[in-house]
Design a protein that fits this description.
glycolysis; alpha/beta; single chain; binds adenosine-5'-diphosphate; binds 1,3-bisphosphoglyceric acid; about 20% strand; 6-stranded parallel β-sheet; 16 helices; about 400 residues; EC 2.7.2.3
Length: about 400
C-alpha cells in the first residue's frame, strides 16, 4: 500500500475518507475517540500544505438528508481538536461542497456533509455508486483512505473513489492493520473472543470463522438472544434474528465437534420497554434466568451471575478480542455487564483488543484507562472481517 509520503500533496486538494461515525446525544458528541483518531493524518496533510477535504458517514440515514445525522457537530469538534478552523459544507457534492473546496488554501481543512445523505454512497448498483464516486473525484486531486471503521463497506467513498484518484493509506489504517495482523498469525492461547452489540446480522457470520480460530467464544449484547432461542429458550421481546436461528444451531453443533467452548448468558437484566437514552430516567429492570425470559420483557444486559462467569472465562486467556457491548451501556442501569467485561480485561494479563465504535466508546465513557488495554480499535465490523481473512474493499482499493 502506498503511504502519504508517496503522494504529492502540497497545494493539492486531498480527499480524506475518515470514519467520524461518533455516538451523539442530540447534538452532543458522547465520545470523540474516532475524531481524535482522525486528527494525526489530517494534521500531517495540512502541515504539508494540502487543501484537506475530509468526508465521512454518520449513522445509517437512507440516502437522503436527515438533520439528526448531520456532521455539523463533528465539524465543530474536529476544529477544536485540530486547533485550526474547519469549513463545513452543508452538502457532499452540491454547490456548498464545490464553493467550500474552492475557497480552501494550502494547509486549510473542510468537512463535507454526511456521505450517506446520497443514495449513490451505499448503492449495490455499481453504476450508481460509480456515478457518485465520479462526482466526489471532481472535488479532489488525490485520495487518502483513513476510515478504518468503514473499510469493510463496498461504498462509493471507500471502494470506488480511490480507483479514480492517486491514492494512499493514512496512518490510522496502517496502525490498525499492523495490530490486527498479530491476531491472525500465531495467536497466544487460550484465545477468547467476546461478542455483543446490536449489529447482529452483520456479525453473526464471522462466528463460522471464529470457530476455527478461538478456544472460547462468549456471547452477550443483542446477539445473545438468537443463541438462547436457538437452544429452545423463550426470549420475550429481546432483539432476535429469527432467520439466523438455523445457522446459529449449526454453530453450536460445530463448536461441540471442535471442542470450542461457547459461553452464553445464564441470567439477564430485562425491562418492559427500551429505555429513554437521552433522559436516562431510571428503568424498572429485573434479573431473570436466561432460559426463560418472560413474554413482555426484553433482555438489555447480562445479569450478575453471567458477569462473574464471563470474568472467570476471560481471566486466564492469553489473547482476547472483544467487539460489541454486553448491554445497553448508554443507560447507567444497563452498563454493568459491559463494565464487568472491560474490568476483566483490565485485570487479566491477556493481550486484549477492543474493537468497534460503541465498544471503544463504552470503555472510555465507563471511565477505563485506554492504556490498560492492548489496543482499542476504531472498527468493530471491520476488525472482525479483517480477522476473518476477508478481502476488505477499502483496503483492496488502496492496494491497487
Ligand atoms: N441486548 C441488547 N439489545 C439491544 N441493543 C443492545 C443490546 N446490547 C447492546 N446493545 C446496543 O448495541 C450497540 C452497539 O452495537 P454495535 O454497533 O454492534 O457495536 P460496535 O459499534 O462496538 O461494533 C450499543 O448502542 C448498545 O446499546
Ligand atoms: O460504526 C461502525 O462500525 P462498528 O459499529 O462495527 O464499529 C462504522 O462506522 C461502520 O458503520 P456501518 O456499520 O453503519 O457501515
Amino acid at each position: 500500500m502506498q503511504t502519504i509520503d508517496d503522494l504529492q500533496v502540497a497545494g493539492q486538494r486531498v480527499f480524506v475518507r475518515a470514519d467520524l461515525n461518533v455516538p451523539l446525544d442530540g447534538e452532543t458528541i458522547t465520545d470523540d475517540g474516532r475524531i481524535r483518531a482522525a486528527v494525526p493524518t489530517i494534521t500531517r496533510l495540512a502541515d504539508a500544505g494540502a487543501k484537506v477535504i475530509v468526508a465521512s458517514h454518520l449513522g445509517r440515514p437512507k440516502g437522503a438528508p436527515e438533520p439528526k445525522y448531520s456532521l455539523a457537530p463533528v465539524a465543530r469538534r474536529l476544529g477544536e481538536l485540530l486547533g485550526r478552523p474547519v469549513a463545513f459544507a452543508t452538502d457532499t457534492v452540491g454547490d456548498s461542497a464545490a464553493a467550500t473546496v474552492a475557497s480552501l488554501g494550502g494547509g486549510q481543512v473542510a468537512l463535507l456533509e454526511n456521505l450517506r445523505f446520497n443514495p449513490g454512497e451505499t448503492s449495490k448498483d455499481d453504476a450508481e455508486r460509480g456515478a457518485f464516486a465520479d462526482q466526489l473525484a471532481a472535488l479532489a486531486d488525490a485520495y487518502v483512505g483513513d476510515g478504518f471503521g468503514a473499510v469493510h463497506r463496498r461504498h462509493a467513498s471507500v471502494y470506488d473513489l480511490p480507483a479514480r484518484l492517486p491514492h494512499a493509506a493514512g496512518g490510522l489504517i496502517a496502525t490498525e492493520v499492523g495490530v490486527l495482523r498479530q491476531l491472525t498469525d500465531d495467536v497466544s492461547r487460550p484465545y477468547a473472543v467476546a461478542l455483543g452489540g446490536a449489529k447482529v446480522s452483520d456479525k453473526l457470520g464471522v462466528i463460522a470463522h471464529l470457530l476455527e480460530r478461538a478456544d472460547r467464544i462468549l456471547i452477550g449484547g443483542g446477539m445473545a438472544y438468537t443463541f438462547l432461542k436457538a437452544q429452545g429458550h423463550e426470549v420475550g421481546d429481546s432483539l432476535l434474528q429469527e432467520d439466523q436461528i438455523p445457522a446459529v444451531q449449526g454453530y453450536l453443533e460445530q463448536a461441540k465437534e471442535r471442542g470450542v467452548e461457547f459461553v452464553l448468558p445464564v441470567d439477564v437484566v430485562a425491562t418492559k420497554e427500551f429505555p429513554d437514552l437521552s433522559t436516562k430516567a431510571p428503568v424498572e429492570a429485573s434479573v431473570v434466568s436466561a432460559d426463560a425470559i418472560p413474554a413482555g420483557l426484553m433482555g438489555l444486559d447480562i445479569g450478575p451471575e453471567t458477569r462473574k462467569l464471563y470474568a472467570a472465562k476471560l481471566a486466564d486467556a492469553a489473547t482476547v478480542f472483544w467487539n460489541g457491548p454486553m448491554g445497553v451501556f448508554e443507560h447507567p442501569d444497563l452498563a454493568e455487564g459491559t463494565r464487568a467485561v472491560a474490568q476483566a480485561l483490565v485485570d487479566s494479563s491477556a493481550f486484549s483488543v477492543v474493537g468497534g465504535g460503541d465498544s471503544a466508546a463504552a470503555v472510555r465513557i465507563l471511565g477505563f484507562d485506554e492504556a490498560a488495554f492492548g489496543h482499542i480499535s476504531t472498527g468493530g465490523g471491520a476488525s472482525l472481517e479483517y480477522l476473518e481473512g476477508k478481502t476488505l474493499p477499502g483496503l483492496a482499493a488502496l492496494e491497487d
